[in-house]
Amino acid sequence: MAPVLSVESLNVGLRATNGVTIPVLENLSFSVDQGKTIALVGESGCGKSMTALAIMRLLPEAFVVSSGQIMLDGEDVLAAQMPRLRSLRGNRMSMIFQEPMTALNPLYTVGDQIAEVLRLHRGLGRKDAAEQTLALLKAVQIPAAAERINAYPHQMSGGMRQRVMIAMALACKPKLLIADEPTTALDVTVQAQIFDLLSRLQDQTETAIVLITHDLGAVSELADDVAVLYAGRCIERGRAHEVIERPRHPYTRGLMACVPHLRLGGEASGAPADLDEIPGMVPPLGERDAACAFLPRCVFADEICRSQLQPPLQADDGGHCVSCWRWKEVA
Fold first, then answer.
1. Cα separations (Å) of 29 from 73, 77, 236, 287, 325?
2. Rounded to an integer, what distance in angstroms lies between the CA atom of residue 273 and that of residue 110?
3. For 262, which of 4, 64, 112, 301 is 20 to 30 Å away at the CA?
C-alpha cells in the first residue's frame, strides 16, 4: 500500500532582497502510512513548522519550494491548482496550528466555525452541520458540549480551544493530519489529555499523522517513526523506539540527554538529576554551509567532519538512517 504522504527531496528557500535564495529545507524526505504517526523533532529553527507549511502549501510569500515532491494519497500537492488545493485542504489534509487563540476567529462562536468547515467541504445544510458539530465536540470530549457550541474562543480554556481545533481538523475525516506543537502553552495534565485524544481518534479514523513536537516523551508513546531535523536537514530517521533507544547522531543523543530523568540511585530519594543541555545554538539562515551544521556544537567532531561535506542519510537493513561521519562512535 502506498503511503498517505510521501515527501521526496524537498528543498525550500527564502528569497532574499539581493536576489539570492537562502536554503531553509534541504533534501528532506520522509513518508507516513495510513493509521501511522511520524514525529518531526528538533529545536526551534530546525525547519519543523516550515515543513508543515510546505506540505499544506501555506508558505509565506518570500519562501519558495525550489525542488522536490509532495505526494498526498498519490496526488502531487505541488502541482495542484488553487481550486483543487482548496479542496485538498480540509477534505484530504488538515492542520492543527500551535496557538488556537490566533487560529480561531474571535468574532464567531466555535460552533459556527466548525459548522462552516462542514458546509464548505461536505456540502451540509445548516441543521445537519449543527448536528455534526455537536457530535464532533462530544467526540473530542468538550464538557457540556451543547452549551459550549455557542461559546466564543476567549470564553474557553487553552485545552478546550485546542480540542475545538482538533474537532475542526477532523471534521471532514482527512487522510492526513498535521499537528504542529498541539500542546504548546498547556500544562502537563492537559498535554497528556490532548495526546491521548489524538491517539484515540487515530485508532477510530485510521488518519495518518505528522506530529511536530518538542516532547520526546510523547514521541515515544505516540509515534511509529521519527525524523530528527537540524538546520533544515534530516540528520536521523527511523522507527521511533530505535531512534530513542539507540540514537546514532550526536544531536539526537543530545536531545535524549535533555529529557528529565532521575540520577542513578536517586529513585528512592526522588532527587532529580541535573538536566543536560546542548551548548550553542542552531545556526541562523544564511550561515549554514555544506559541512555538518552541528559541527560547532558536536563533542564527537574530528578532522573528517571539518574537511568533508556532510554525508547523505545512510540506512541499515532495518531502515534506521543517519547522516554523520562518526555515527558508529556515537552508537
1. 16, 15, 11, 22, 20
2. 43
3. 301
